[in-house]
């Protein structure tokens, strides 16, 4: 707990994202972006947590995040994604999608591309609720039930799937390079193959029965068929999109809406969720209760390193702990990562050993020593 | 009518002077003022002025104060009633300290901004806020010492010394300046610093400073040594020790007599500075008053006087000394400022006067609301009843929270304050929450969660209705239906189902199938919705060529009478292709029922026929044609069944 420190920022934070670090270096991230909501003037801001140098184990508590620069944002920032090291895509409650460029030499921000009112109803703007990007492609979703595809280097819109959903699409993520996954407000997961010209999903998965809205989705970084979602009741659902149309497992997590779920990008046995109930949870599946992973090969002496960045060929044999996992057997451990909180934790992002989250209590929390 | 405590403040509305008439309307936090017209139309101005009572909630730095203190406030409310009172007291003191540290952090930031800004106006504004926060912290700290910690004689003085030291920080600054100079002992502020240290009872520091002077004056070495001994020997009460208060008092009296002796035998006569210090040590009032500049406030004077004259002062005696010190210190002519009277009221242990004066003097409710709440938890406010509202604590919290609710972003904080007002909090929340503008679904969900957690079903319904209406206006039927299902709003669900059916009639296809096909038990919300879902199910069965199931469903839809009458024709028309199939699908009984429905429909058509307009007549005639076709088909079907029966074959339905 000691390594978590709060910084009050005088704006309710809707999104926080680390700036990506180059894959070659084993650097920890040091810059993150935040977006605000519900203010008269909303902003996107860039913050620095100072240079790490080494792992910083001895110091633990370093200074507050420092504001590098900020820029006015029309409407609430509903989602944020880094396109690359310098560019960030925001989606707005006014239906606009904007690419901002962060000039690191002068510490300024400029608008590099803007699509106003792309999400809209016949006579009104529709909030654009989510974005996912894989440079140069950008995919956004909105309350208007549309999926829109852009390219960062082109002015027009590449493709619009009208009526992709009859209700609000809350979040979107890539499943593979050409496939995306959306979650909506009636508890459905929809798979879309962007190569197909048809305007209907290639697969629909749904929660049985109560149609509780799903608010967030994240894909396992190595095993692309495993997907985690969170919704209105605060339950964490893990899905295997290859099998069945219902969730593989349901785990009680939060007592109110789960706003975000993230697998740790390099150590996917760890997962993080945050919620309207003001808590931030760290989930950890241990491969098998108390046996170190290298002993589990058994007679089958093919050793599999779980920390490998990407699975080697034949990954079908590798059963994910998230799918074999069974919370009742104690294989899954959860820990609260914030001291008692009352107001919603709207967003979190984790990269390396660093975690950042933002709340409606107008605070940003940074933890530099996430035990992963 | 009660008398007014103070003259009301006057706010000038620009562009509304010169005998123009003003009208106004109360808002939840602000007032709207507008010019009313008595003259010829067209000459007035079309502005509405928003008069804000509380500017502070718009300060970005003070927002941090509101957010951080909200967290402390919520923590305070969860302290359990049944804790032993001793544990509770330490908790309350630490909570009070938390509040103060938040104020201090806020103050420091304001100070920084005030210094760094280049705009003079902003600097003054921030400067003013700093001085307000300074006063707030000063009052809070004193209340903490007197009321919350409620230190008894002995420790009381120590706390008061800490209080004065904390708020008279300029001594340290001056000392630093002196020490950093080339020869500190010859610095022109040197003696000021030494005397200030003595006045605050900081003898260690004073002695260290005196050493510097002593080394410069070897001739007066003995005199300095004597002073050093006096200073080092002054007894301080040690609250953790075994010493009783009487023992301490005896010890202190000895020391006091010793100092007095030194003064009598002119030990320091040759050094005017040391003589002054000695006079201060003995508590000479005239000498103390000669150092008004260094004391700067009457309450510093009070604490210094207590230190050197009455170190075992009891809380109950405080008010006497406070009153006399204030009169002695302030000039006869000068009127005490609000801060002075607030502190005096505190020394008199008149909590209500403190809170009342603060409410009048300060321009926001933050301070009084939080302090009163804390004092109330300490069970210090029981005796007082208001002749309005519920009690003082709740009244002030409600005022503060209502102010927050008028802010476009801070309204979320207010909810927890309302929650902790047992009598009127819920009503306030109900009235305010409906006024939160809902720009996005995410915000609506947050507001909804607040309402649902508090069983505010009326508000839940109204929020869902707003969202459903908005979706409907934007032609998002699926969303609209989801919202009305969440609100369990049967009437609205019926309305939307009608729209779905109309759209189907117009286009021949269903929209939003992902929702309609997955409604589950929610379809039972309204008859019309159930019909919609079942009707869609019929189409699905038909598309899948499951004709007999489709026929059964269709017939039950017709006979169960949940279909809107206007839709009967469509349903019967849907039966046509089933009747035209090669194999027989409807059983004998089913054909009977179909026939019966058809007759009912035809008769109703005939009764409405005369006197209606042309388009209606055209529609009716087309309906009649369809009916005739149906009749023929049904009859054919019937005869087919009869033939089949005669042949003894197994016809459907037997």
From TrEMBL, chain A:
InterPro entries per record: WD40/YVTN_repeat-like_dom_sf, WD40_repeat_CS, WD40_repeat_dom_sf, WD40_rpt
Keyword Nucleus: yes
Location within or outside the cell: Nucleus
Gene Ontology CC terms: nuclear pore outer ring
Record keywords, A-Z: Nucleus, Repeat, WD repeat
Repeat region (WD), residues: 207-249, 251-293
Keyword Nucleus among UniProt keywords: yes
PANTHER family: NUCLEOPORIN NUP43
Protein name: Nucleoporin 43
From TrEMBL, chain B:
Places the protein is found: Nucleus, Nuclear pore complex
InterPro entries: Nucleoporin_Nup85 (IPR011502)
Organism superkingdom: Eukaryota
Main location: nucleus
Keywords on record: Membrane, mRNA transport, Nuclear pore complex, Nucleus, Protein transport, Translocation, Transport
Cellular-component GO terms for this entry: nuclear membrane; nuclear pore outer ring
Keyword set includes Protein transport: yes
Any single GO BP term: positive regulation of DNA-templated transcription
Pfam families: Nucleopor_Nup85
Function: Functions as a component of the nuclear pore complex (NPC).
Self-association state and partner proteins as the record states: Component of the nuclear pore complex (NPC).
Stated name of the protein: Nuclear pore complex protein Nup85
Organism (species): Sander lucioperca (Pike-perch)
């Amino acid at each position: 707990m000691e390594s978590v420190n709060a910084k009050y920022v005088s704006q309710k934070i809707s999104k926080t994202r680390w700036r990506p670090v180059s894959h070659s270096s084993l650097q920890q991230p040091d810059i993150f972006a935040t977006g605000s909501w519900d203010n008269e003037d909303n902003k996107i801001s860039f913050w620095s947590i100072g240079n790490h140098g080494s792992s910083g184990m001895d110091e633990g508590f370093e200074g507050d995040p420092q504001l590098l620069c900020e820029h006015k944002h029309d409407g609430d920032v509903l989602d944020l994604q880094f396109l690359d090291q310098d560019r960030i895509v925001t989606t707005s409650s006014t239906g606009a999608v904007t690419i901002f460029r962060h000039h690191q030499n002068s510490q300024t921000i400029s608008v590099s591309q803007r699509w106003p009112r792309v999400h809209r109803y016949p006579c009104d703007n529709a909030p654009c609720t989510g974005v996912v990007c894989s440079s140069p492609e950008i995919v956004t979703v909105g309350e208007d039930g549309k999926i829109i595809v852009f390219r960062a280097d082109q002015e027009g819109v590449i493709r619009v799937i009208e009526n992709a959903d009859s209700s609000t699409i809350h979040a979107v993520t890539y499943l593979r390079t050409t496939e995306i996954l959306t979650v909506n407000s009636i508890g459905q997961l929809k798979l879309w193959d962007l190569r197909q010209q048809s305007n209907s999903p290639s697969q629909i998965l749904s929660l049985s029965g109560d149609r509780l809205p799903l608010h967030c989705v994240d894909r396992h970084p190595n095993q692309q068929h495993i997907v985690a979602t969170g919704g209105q009741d605060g339950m964490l659902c893990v899905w295997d999109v290859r099998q069945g149309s219902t969730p593989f497992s349901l785990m009680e997590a939060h007592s109110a809406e789960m706003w975000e779920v993230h697998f740790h990008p390099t150590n996917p046995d760890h997962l993080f969720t945050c919620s309207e109930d003001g808590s931030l949870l760290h989930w950890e599946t241990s491969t098998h209760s108390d046996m170190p992973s290298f002993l589990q090969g058994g007679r089958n002496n093919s050793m599999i390193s779980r920390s490998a960045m990407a699975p080697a060929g034949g990954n079908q044999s590798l059963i994910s702990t998230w799918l074999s996992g069974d919370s009742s057997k104690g294989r899954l451990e959860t820990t609260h990562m914030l001291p008692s909180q009352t107001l919603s934790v709207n967003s979190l992002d984790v990269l390396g050993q660093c975690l950042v989250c933002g709340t409606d209590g107008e605070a940003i929390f940074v933890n530099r020593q996430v035990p992963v | 009518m009660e008398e007014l405590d103070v003259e009301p403040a006057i706010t000038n509305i620009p562009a509304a002077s010169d005998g123009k008439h003003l009208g106004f309307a109360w808002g939840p936090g602000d007032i709207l003022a507008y010019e009313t017209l008595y003259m010829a139309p067209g000459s007035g101005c079309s502005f509405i002025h928003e008069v804000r009572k509380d500017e502070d909630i718009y300060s970005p730095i003070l927002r941090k104060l509101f957010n951080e203190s909200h967290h402390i406030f919520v923590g305070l409310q969860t302290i359990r009633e049944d804790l032993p009172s001793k544990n509770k007291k330490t908790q309350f003191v630490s909570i009070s300290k938390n509040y103060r540290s938040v104020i201090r952090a806020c103050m420091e930031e304001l100070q920084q901004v005030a210094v760094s800004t280049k705009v003079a106006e902003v600097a003054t504004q921030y400067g003013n806020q700093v001085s307000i926060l300074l006063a707030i912290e000063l009052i809070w700290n004193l209340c903490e010492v007197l009321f919350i910690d409620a230190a008894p004689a002995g420790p009381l003085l120590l706390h008061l010394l800490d209080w004065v030291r904390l708020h008279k920080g300029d001594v340290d600054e001056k000392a630093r300046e002196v020490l950093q100079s080339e020869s500190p002992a010859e610095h022109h502020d040197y003696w000021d610093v030494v005397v200030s240290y003595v006045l605050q009872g900081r003898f260690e520091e004073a002695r260290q400073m005196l050493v510097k002077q002593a080394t410069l004056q070897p001739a007066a070495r003995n005199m300095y040594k004597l002073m050093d001994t006096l200073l080092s020997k002054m007894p301080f009460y040690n609250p953790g020790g075994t010493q009783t208060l009487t023992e301490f008092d005896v010890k202190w009296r000895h020391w006091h007599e010793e100092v007095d002796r030194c003064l009598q035998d002119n030990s320091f006569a040759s050094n005017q500075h040391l003589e002054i210090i000695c006079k201060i040590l003995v508590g000479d009032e005239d000498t103390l008053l000669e150092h008004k500049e260094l004391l700067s406030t009457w309450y510093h004077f009070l604490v210094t006087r207590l230190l050197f004259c009455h170190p075992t002062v009891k809380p109950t005696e405080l008010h006497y000394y406070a009153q006399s010190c204030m009169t002695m210190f302030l000039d006869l002519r000068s009127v005490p400022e609000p801060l002075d009277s607030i502190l005096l009221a505190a020394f008199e242990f008149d909590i209500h006067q403190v809170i009342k004066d603060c409410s009048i003097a300060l321009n926001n409710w933050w301070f009084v609301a939080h302090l009163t709440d804390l004092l109330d938890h300490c069970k210090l406010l029981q005796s007082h009843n208001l002749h309005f509202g519920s009690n003082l604590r709740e009244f002030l919290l409600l005022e503060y929270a209502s102010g927050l609710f008028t802010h476009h972003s801070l309204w979320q904080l207010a909810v927890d304050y309302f929650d902790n007002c047992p009598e009127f909090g819920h009503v306030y929340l109900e009235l305010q929450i409906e006024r939160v503008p809902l720009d996005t679904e995410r915000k609506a969900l947050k507001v909804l969660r607040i309402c649902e957690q508090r069983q505010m079903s009326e508000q839940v319904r109204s929020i869902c209705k707003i969202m459903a209406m908005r979706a409907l206006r934007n032609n998002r039927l699926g969303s609209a239906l989801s919202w009305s299902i969440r609100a369990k709003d049967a009437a609205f669900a019926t309305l939307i189902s009608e729209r779905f059916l109309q759209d189907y009639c117009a286009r021949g296809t269903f929209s939003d199938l992902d929702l309609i096909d997955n409604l589950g038990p929610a379809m039972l919300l309204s008859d019309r919705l159930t019909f919609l879902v079942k009707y869609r199910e019929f189409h699905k069965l038909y598309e899948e060529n499951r004709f007999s199931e489709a026929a059964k469903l269709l017939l039950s839809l017709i006979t169960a009478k949940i279909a809107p009458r206007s839709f009967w024709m469509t349903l019967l028309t849907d039966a046509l292709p089933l009747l035209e199939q090669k194999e027989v699908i409807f059983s004998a009984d089913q054909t009977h029922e179909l026939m019966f429905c058809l007759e009912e429909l035809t008769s109703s058509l005939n009764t409405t026929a005369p006197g209606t307009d042309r388009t209606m007549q055209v529609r009716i005639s087309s309906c009649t044609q369809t009916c005739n076709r149906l009749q023929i088909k049904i009859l054919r079907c019937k005869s087919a069944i009869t033939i089949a029966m005669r042949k003894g074959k197994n016809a459907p339905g037997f």
